[in-house]
TrEMBL record:
It comes from the Bacteria. This is Enoyl-[acyl-carrier-protein] reductase [NADH]. Belongs to the short-chain dehydrogenases/reductases (SDR) family. FabI subfamily. Pathway: Lipid metabolism; fatty acid biosynthesis. GO terms for molecular function: enoyl-[acyl-carrier-protein] reductase (NADH) activity. InterPro entries: Enoyl-ACP_Rdtase_NADH (IPR014358), NAD(P)-bd_dom_sf (IPR036291), SDR_fam (IPR002347). Pfam families: adh_short_C2. It comes from Paraflavitalea soli. One of its GO terms (biological process) is fatty acid biosynthetic process. Its EC number is 1.3.1.9. Keywords: Fatty acid biosynthesis, Fatty acid metabolism, Lipid biosynthesis, Lipid metabolism, NAD, Oxidoreductase. Coiled coil: none annotated. Gene3D superfamilies: NAD(P)-binding Rossmann-like Domain. It catalyses: a 2,3-saturated acyl-[ACP] + NAD(+) = a (2E)-enoyl-[ACP] + NADH + H(+).
Length: 270
């Protein structure tokens, strides 16, 4: 169902890799709600060509950009503004890469060069995106920027590894840039702390299936799906949430505030 919540709005969506991606689901919902879109991903991620299907459905151009490359980002914003014929109303930052996680390195033994890359791609990239928009004055008044995060930024989930630190930094960047951009142009910047979802990035975490079931049992509403997340992002891009900024917003079926559930107790007693 569409409510036309994003009618006339123009947005850039980072990170749609395949149809399971949270960014993919969100782009579809934004399109249904009347937004005009530009899609972007790392040039290497585009070689698979999957994103072209999404581009067709959402009638959006695809502009490649590596989020760690300032020239790519500048070109992306220039081309997006040219395509839209003006400024940008919303951005979804749905990007992450855990280099040490990928290479199977334990948290206590991380390689620091890889870790720097992890933090650059997963966290400081939000700063790079915002800085590019800031320098080019690319965002309209009341524009909304959303980054995706996970509760491992606040609580220990051992196998989330270095990504826990990366998410803590991502949330800090959203808060701190949110202050400056709020004052300058009423731009709001938030992170959505999402339930686990089986995507390419999600499945990279060791023991992901057990993790997913545990979260399901620990959440009074169950796990929030990627489509649920897309709906929530739509509300954050809409004018209905104009005064929400610098927040880390839990979108997790109640997981973050639950100590234990009967389902988990029953499991322990077996
Ligand atoms: N899946 C989950 O369980 C879950 C839970 C909470 C938060 N998140 C977060 O949601 C976001 C989206 O992840 P997803 O689960 O949809 O997985 P995904 O693998 O579909 O998306 C990750 C995206 O990051 C892109 N990317 C990686 N390096 C890049 C670079 N250098 N430049 C540009 N793009 C780059 C990938 O190409 C990919 O499209 C991530 O920030 C992730 O940490 C995921």
């Amino acid at each position: 169902m569409s409510y036309n919540l994003l009618k006339g709005k123009k947005g850039i969506v980072f990170g749609a890799l395949d149809e399971k991606s949270i960014a993919w689901r969100t782009a579809l919902r934004c399109h249904e709600e009347g937004a005009q879109l530009v899609l972007t991903n790392a040039p290497v991620a585009m070689r698979m060509g999957e994103i072209n299907k999404l581009a067709e459905t959402t009638k959006a151009p695809v502009i490649p950009a590596d989020v760690t490359n300032m020239d790519d980002l500048k070109k992306l914003f220039e081309e997006a503004m040219k395509h839209f014929g003006g400024g940008i109303d919303f951005i979804l930052h749905s990007v992450a890469m855990g280099m040490n996680v990928r290479k199977g390195k334990h948290y206590t033994e991380i390689d620091y060069n890889w870790n720097q890359k992890t933090l650059d791609i997963s966290s400081m990239s939000l700063h790079r995106v915002l800085r590019t928009a800031w320098d080019m004055d690319a965002l309209n008044e009341h524009a909304s920027v959303v980054g995706l995060t996970y509760i491992a930024a606040q609580r220990v989930f051992p196998d989330y590894n270095e990504m826990a630190d990366a998410k803590a930094l991502l949330e800090a960047v959203a808060r701190n840039f949110g202050y400056h951009y709020g004052i300058r142009k009423k731009v709001r910047i938030n992170t959505v702390s999402q339930s686990p979802v089986k995507t390419t990035a999600g499945s990279g975490v060791k023991g992901f299936d057990g993790f997913l079931t545990y979260a399901e049992k620990m959440s009074p509403l169950g796990n929030a799906s990627a489509d649920d997340c897309a709906n929530y992002c739509v509300t954050l891009f809409s004018d209905l949430t104009k005064m929400v900024t610098m927040q880390n917003l839990f979108h997790d079926g109640g997981f973050s505030f639950t100590g234990v559930t009967q389902a988990v107790i029953d499991q322990m007693e077996k």
